[in-house]
């Protein structure tokens, strides 16, 4: 992706919190803009630990949701397989 440099105004408290979190502001903003412009998005409520891992990966590695999507697909397929096994076991026990 080709990038363009812009100037951005944020609150002092926001700046301080971003510094404390170690977030890469450019990466974070790119991800938020992509989420905003996307026609296909999902929202997940996750634990604080999972949110922290996600934010560190996105803000510090230049990763995008597009980069993360294949991993999410694999996890969802694995979860579905586990659920099918559990339902099959339940069905056989009836």
What does this structure look like?
- By secondary structure, this protein is an all-alpha fold.
- It has one domain.
- It is 70% helix and 0% strand.
- It contains four helices and no strands.
- It has helices at 12-21, 25-37, 48-61, 65-93.
- α2 (25-37) crosses α3.
- The radius of gyration is 18 Å and the shape is elongated.
- The chain starts with 11 loop residues before the first helix and ends with a helix.
- 3% of the residues are buried.
- The model has no long low-confidence stretch (mean pLDDT 89).
Radius of gyration: 18 Å
Assign an overall shape. Answer: elongated
The number of helices is 4
Question: What's the count of strands?
Answer: 0
| Strand proportion | under 5%
The SSE order reads HHHH
In short:
The chain is mostly helical. It has four helices and no strands. The protein starts with 11 loop residues before the first helix and ends with a helix.
């Amino acid at each position: 992706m080709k990038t363009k440099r812009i100037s951005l105004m944020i609150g002092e408290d926001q700046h301080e919190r971003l510094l404390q979190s170690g977030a890469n502001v450019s990466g974070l903003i790119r991800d938020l803009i992509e989420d905003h412009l996307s026609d296909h998005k999902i929202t997940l409520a996750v634990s604080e630990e999972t949110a922290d891992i996600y934010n560190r990966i996105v803000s510090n590695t230049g990763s995008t949701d597009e980069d993360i999507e294949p991993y999410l697909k694999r996890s969802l397929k694995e979860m579905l397989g586990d659920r099918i096994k559990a339902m099959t076991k339940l069905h056989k026990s009836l």
